[in-house]
Amino acid sequence: MQPQDVAPRPAASSADPVVDVEQAEAALVEHYPRLVRLAYLVLPPSLGRNRRVVTAHSLAQRALPRGRASAAAVIPAQSKGRDGDPGYAFVRLQVLRTALEAGQPLRFTALPKRSQLPPLLPQVWGLRLFPRSGGADELTLDQRLSALSGPARAAYVLRGLERLPDGDVTKALSAAGVADPAAALREADEVPAQYALLGSPEFDPCALHARPTDLMRRRQHGKAALAAAAALAVCGALLGLPGDGWAPDGAAAPVYAQNPAAEAALDPAKLTRVAPTAWESAARTDFSVWPARGDLTGDKALLRRALAVWARPGESVQVSATPGTPSGGPAGPPQLLYAGTVDSAHVVILYDGLRIARYAEPADGTKGAALDFARVDGADRTEASALVLGRADGNVRYLTAPWVTKAVERDLMKPNAGAMDLDLAKGITAPMAGAAQQTGACTSWNVLQLTDATGTRLLTDLGELIPAHLTTGRPGSTKEASGAEALRTWAPYACSLGAVRSAGVRSVNAWAYADQSLPDASGTAHWVCTRAETWRGGGTRVLAQFQTPGGTYGAVAAKAENVAACGPKDPNVLAGVLWKSEAGGWYLLAAGSRGTSSISATGGIKATAQGGQLAARTQQGAQAELKGTLADGRTISGLR
Fold first, then answer.
1. Angle between helical axes of 181-188 and 150-160 (0-180°, round to 10)
2. Among 68, 77, 63, residue whose Cα is nearest residue 30
3. CA angle (24 as vertex; 18, 30 as ends), nearest 5
4. CA-CA-CA-CA torsion for 484, 488, 489, 494, nearest 10 degrees?
5. What is the rounded distance in angstroms from the CA atom of residue 135 to the CA atom of residue 138?
6. 485 or 11: whose pLDDT is higher?
7. 464 φ/ψ angles, rounded to the nearest 5 degrees
8. Three-class secondary structure assignment of 444-502
9. What tens digit of pLDDT does each residue of 76-126 get?
10. Does the pLDDT of residue 307 top 60, yes or no?
């Protein structure tokens, strides 16, 4: 890594705005994941992934001004934040400055700055934390960024992650103390502009894997700590007499006592096994009535290993869990769903009423074992129809529910193409192309279509154990996406499902909420809102998408997270987009869902229209705020 060139902090001018601590704190809380990602990308990779993660969080958490309203909390007037928020611009500048300082080498001639030392907080003892692994493209980009100097890496990140033009990048670097921003920009030009990769989980220090630290060293330290604790306990006993001691635990067992429930959870003989026909008469139709299947259900050694790894995963075990899913051991004996050989691996799938746990190990040993968790509480008949049994060579194989009678594979992007039957032997499908594993341009999106006595439904692989359920229609009255009209609705927007990979998604609904006649006799455009619901309840993602006549793909016009819009609680949506007609004119187009009585635009574009659609002539790059009025008088804002 090249040496950094960071100058002293420039003095603020009297024209710079002042940011108080409340404004900065609000910006920090709202944009915390983005700020931590920015710090992680700017920090030198030579720190190591664990210290880089902890340092990134530390720098973001120390970005607030010191005081209720401080003259030190000034920001350069040119540094625009998220949507012009000066609070965000301030905390971003603080994070950028300290991240650059953290990468400077320590010198014996001067005292180190706080950011150059290991952070005091946050700390996680006994674990190494690191982001999820990305693909080859992310690895290559990380290697290229590691070869840059700190200012050049910051310039690349500000360009790609913050979408700042070079003029604003220069000003931000200068404000952060970089002596030669122009040289940093030139050096950043040496790395290809793969800015979309900066949003990859590879560079997300908020979605982490955990592994133990050096176990042998911990054991040596633990012996020393145990001896010290024993001496302290003797002294405490002497000081505490007479009486019951400092803090008796009442009826709790001693810490060294064996727990019968925990022992039972690790006993293969006590695994719950359901009869093959239990689902036919059960009041509930979910994973709790799945029978145990597979050719290794009697392999007690394999089952014991799976249960032991679930309770105590070793350092070499790759552990993953969907967001919001606890990864601790089972509270009691779980239910066995499957134990068998899948391709070249031994796989065990267990269910504890809240989670599905999938243990996999190579058929010729235990090195490289993996443990995956998915949350499935409240699953219904549809959501408990299938789970991922294994992935290999870009294909995915499913284990289906005992009530599934037919499985087919279809391309969601080709609604008029036929579906291909999948062999269904003992509930296991033949391998099919996995949509979640495809790389490069999105030209197809294969989904699983299942049929049982109640109907046909579509499920899609999003890189997790449980495939997401696809539906269409107005929120509150959705229907299965397996019909001809529903398939045509989904086709242009299938590739947008890639935006919700590995997010713990339970279901995704596509709602064609408006058709809009375009200016200059350019035909009719279609507006569709897709809403991804999660198993944990929070983290819902809403996309408003716009498709022009003859377009193969829909374009994302607006998106939001954790909002009620386009959902059962608020089946209303409003979104807009800048569009260029074939005649060369630029227009602001906006459309609201049924029941929108008027739409108004303010800001860079001022226009009003009665009804649920607006088309206003404008210029390229113009920005506007949208507001709609519903028939009942309530107002809604446009998605951002």
1. 70
2. 63
3. 145
4. 120
5. 5
6. 485
7. -125, 180
8. CCEEEEEEECCEEEEEECCCCCCCEEEEECCCCCCEECCCHHHHHHHHHHHHHHHHHCC
9. 433 445 656 788 999 999 999 999 998 887 665 556 777 767 777 677 766
10. yes
Distance CA 580, CA 264 (A): 66
What does the alpha-carbon distance between residue 266 and residue 306 come to, in Å, rounded to a whole number? 9
- pTM given for the model: 0.62
| Residue 50 dihedral angles phi and psi, to the nearest 5° | -65, -50
b/e per residue 325-346 (b: at least 16 CB within 10 A): beeebbeebbbbbbbbebeebb
CA distance 109 to 61: 29
Predicted local confidence at residue 218, as pLDDT: 54
Residue with the two structure tokens 């699983």: 448
pLDDT band at 520 (very low <50, low <70, confident <90, very high): confident
Rounded to the nearest integer, the mean pLDDT of the chain is 85
487 against 237, higher pLDDT: 487
Cβ 468 vs Cβ 432: under 8 Å: no
For residue 509, give the 3-state DSSP assignment.
strand
389-407 as b/e: b if 16+ CB within 10 A: bbbeeeebbbbbbbbbeeb
pLDDT band at 2 (very low <50, low <70, confident <90, very high): very low
The length of the chain is: 640
Tell me the average pLDDT across 424-447. 87
For residue 269, pLDDT beyond 90: yes
Comparing CA positions, the residue from 460, 466, 545, 470 lying closest to residue 507 is: 470
Distance CA 405, CA 286 (A): 16
Percent of the chain's residues with pLDDT above 90: 61
Tell me the three state secondary structure of residue 62. coil
DSSP class of 105: P
> 138: part of which helix (H) or strand (E)?
helix 136-146
